[in-house]
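Pilot study result, target chain (268 residues):
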Amino acid sequence: MNDFFLWLGIDAWRPALTALLMPPVPFLVIVLIGARLFSRHRVRAWLVLLIGCLGIWAMCTQAAGYALTHWLLPPTRSLTPNEIGDLKKAPRTAIVVLGAGHRDLAPEYGVSDLQSMGVERLRFGIWLSRQTELPILFTGGRAHGSAPGQSEAEIAARTAERDFGRPLRWTESESRDTRENALRSVALLRTESIERIVIVTHGYHMPRALDNFRKAVSQGGANVQLVAAPMGISPWFRPRFIDFLPTRSGYNQVGLVLHEFFGRLIGA
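Predicted structure:
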């Protein structure tokens, strides 16, 4: 599906198309359909309106976010201390940190900056690098439809050296989505004779990242081992009353999960 969008030349429309597919838009459409039915089918109209309103409510709760995470995305786990220790002994290995968006201007710094999730990934990648002494590649350009400007990888390189005192070994600044992150990163590291890639991203994003890196390795014909190093994984969820009420964090979590699910469907 992603290749189909590229073939049609409408890849720049993807942010708008994604927004139309994500809650609350589908449930607002259901509400409008219910309103239209009032003139002839009152009982059906009330049923459709109720479904739409309950859907909007549910998609803004932590309970729905947790349920969707476990239903739609395969579970991931963090690396164990022993696995991290084994990486320290591994030759021809590199850490690849995937970008998560950026701001063209952060007024408090007077320059462009990474989005908060991108900073979290970079911080964990640098921590892992310190534990294992492995080099880091940060991959991220500018998203589909973005205006020209500094790439996310360039911002990450500045942040890594300025804020963490740990320069990056490589940067990949042309990719626009996870699929291109994988293709360009594997191609770059192949020229460096890297045989093992440690992928750093959030747990909810790891299934899509692994899908794309496996395809990139297969397409390139390289014998490269992939190691998942997810971060930001939520602990076991014990629902409370407040978790069934609409909250900003619930809305954000549902949005992230559905974004990843649709991204996997289209191969982005």
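One observation from the pilot: Residues 2-73+244-266 form one domain. A full batch analysis is planned for the follow-on phase.
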